Amino acid sequence: MEDAGFDGLVPVAEGPGGLRVWGVAEPPRSGLYGAPVEVNVLLEAGEEPERLDLSLLGEVVADVDRFVGAALGLVRRVLAAEPEVLGLTAEEAGRHLAGSDAELPLGAPQIDFHLDGWQLRFTEGALPVCDPYGAAVVFDGLRPVRFEDLRDAEPVEE
Question: How many CB atoms lie within 10 A of CB 115?
Fold first, then answer.
């Protein structure tokens, strides 16, 4: 693949085991966070970028706050129904539920696409579940479907 990228994507890094990381030339800016949102496409060795759903990626990048808001909404539902999943007591969760979705203590959203799906990861946060890798919401197409606890994730070896 050429260094010019494919359909607006540019190569960012080569990782372990042949992992290739691509990013968007112009990261979208979140109005909710007042900052750019990093977008990564992570391809394993042997995966062809042409198989990536570029129309879905384009829709997510074009309306990033819609998906950040959807992810925050799913975290709020988990917070209300199962606060222990986030490392909180019901009382602690109640304090967070009193505010808006945008006031949830999650920050630095990042979008990670793979050939088999994508997730929106909050790379920073004041919830216990955020230590050390943040917390993720997995999407099925345009719909958030589950919260993912990353505390037991394996770090990527350089």
Answer: 15
**For every residue of 22-76, which 3-state class applies, written as one string?**
EEECCCCEECCCCEECEEEEEECCCCCHHHCCHHHHHHHHHCHHHHHHHHHHHHH
| Single-letter amino acid code for the residue at 20 | R
Tokens 């042409």 correspond to 50
Q: Rounded distance, CA 96 to CA 41, Å?
A: 32
Helix, strand or coil, per DSSP, at residue 114: strand
User: Do residues 106 and 117 lie in contact, with contact meaning Cβ atoms separated by under 8 Å?
Assistant: no
Whole-number pLDDT of residue 142: 97
Model confidence over 126-137: pLDDT tens digits?
Answer: 999 999 999 999
In terms of DSSP bridges, do strands 106-114 and 117-125 run parallel, antiparallel, or are they unpaired?
antiparallel
